[in-house]
């Protein structure tokens, strides 16, 4: 079992739809959870991060973490064509004197006008 | 504010030629530095990471190597490129232990080995 699993999609939705992106993980040591957005031919950019279980909102984006189920989600409300990108989940833990940062494979999202 | 520079943006190299990709970080000191490779459908593969000058950890055995000659400079090299080395290479940095651990990425280098 991989430490972080993310459905690679692709996912295509109409403009205005609510998008749900998900990742599961197996390592209970992960304590810090992130979502990155990557436009084509660009480096990933940090979109949201959270330490704790529960929801965190930032504009049209909501990050949700359920540590008991080892499941994280990113919701995008009122999706726009400019949201079309690949979204990567990432999580990290500090163990054995070093940081462990693991990424999901990324989900390619297309929002159609 | 911190910035990360990575160059070149694109590179086409023949098989068997050497490689040198450079990454520099500004606005922070003693960062963790990373080299990733991203291939279609395979996500981000960590190649090397460094917690300090001259300290390099390799995650994947291959014909690539990394060096950190200065605190904020990270170099990815190869003596002889293989076709399988083609991909999108990303440099990233993060704060050291005890601080936020998110990684910040450069804009990447698209390497095509022909």
| Annotation field: number of helices of chain A | 0
Question: Quick check: average pLDDT of chain A?
Answer: 91
Helix content of chain A: under 10%
Largest sheet of chain A, if any?
6 strands, mixed
Series of secondary-structure elements of chain B, N-terminal to C-terminal: EEEEEEEEEEE
Query: Largest interface: which pair?
Result: A-B, 23 and 24 residues
Terminus-to-terminus distance of chain B: 38 Å
Cα shape of chain A = globular
Secondary-structure element pattern of chain A, one letter each: EEEEEEEEEEE
Note down, in words, how this protein is organized.
The complex is a heterodimer of chains A (113) and B (114). With 113 residues, chain A is an all-beta fold. Chain A is 0% helix and 59% strand. Chain A has no helices and 11 strands. In chain A, strands 2, 4, 5, 9, 10 and 11 form a 6-stranded mixed β-sheet that branches. A 5-stranded antiparallel β-sheet of chain A has the order 1-3-8-7-6, with no helix packed on it. In chain A, a hairpin with a 6-residue loop joins strand 4 and strand 5. The N and C termini of chain A lie far apart (38 Å). The model of chain A has no long low-confidence stretch (mean pLDDT 91). Chain B is an all-beta fold. Helix content of chain B is 0%, strand content 59%. Chain B contains no helices and 11 strands. In chain B, strands 2, 4, 5, 6, 9, 10 and 11 form a 7-stranded mixed β-sheet that branches. Chain B has a 4-stranded antiparallel β-sheet with strand order 1-3-8-7, with no helix packed on it. The relative contact order of chain B is 0.33. The mean pLDDT of chain B is 90.
């Amino acid at each position: 079992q991989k430490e972080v699993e993310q459905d690679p999609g692709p996912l295509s939705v109409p403009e205005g739809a609510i998008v749900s992106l998900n990742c599961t993980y197996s390592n209970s040591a992960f304590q810090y959870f992130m979502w990155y957005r990557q436009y084509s031919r660009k480096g990933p950019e940090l979109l949201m991060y959270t330490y704790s279980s529960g929801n965190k909102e930032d504009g049209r984006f909501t990050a949700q973490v359920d540590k008991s189920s080892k499941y994280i989600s990113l919701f995008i409300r009122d999706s726009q064509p400019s949201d079309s990108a690949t979204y990567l989940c990432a999580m990290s833990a500090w163990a054995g004197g070093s940081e462990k940062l693991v990424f999901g494979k990324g989900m390619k999202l297309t929002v159609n006008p | 504010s911190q910035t990360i520079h990575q160059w070149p943006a694109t590179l086409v190299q023949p098989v068997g030629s050497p490689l040198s990709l450079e990454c520099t970080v500004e606005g922070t000191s003693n960062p963790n530095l990373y080299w990733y490779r991203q291939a279609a459908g395979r996500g981000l593969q960590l190649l090397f990471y460094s917690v300090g000058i001259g300290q390099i950890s390799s995650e994947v055995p291959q014909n690539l190597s990394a060096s950190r000659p200065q605190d904020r400079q990270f170099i990815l090299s190869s003596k002889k490129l293989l076709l399988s080395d083609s991909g999108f290479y990303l440099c990233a940095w993060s704060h050291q232990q005890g601080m936020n651990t998110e990684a910040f990425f450069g804009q990447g280098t698209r390497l095509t080995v022909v």
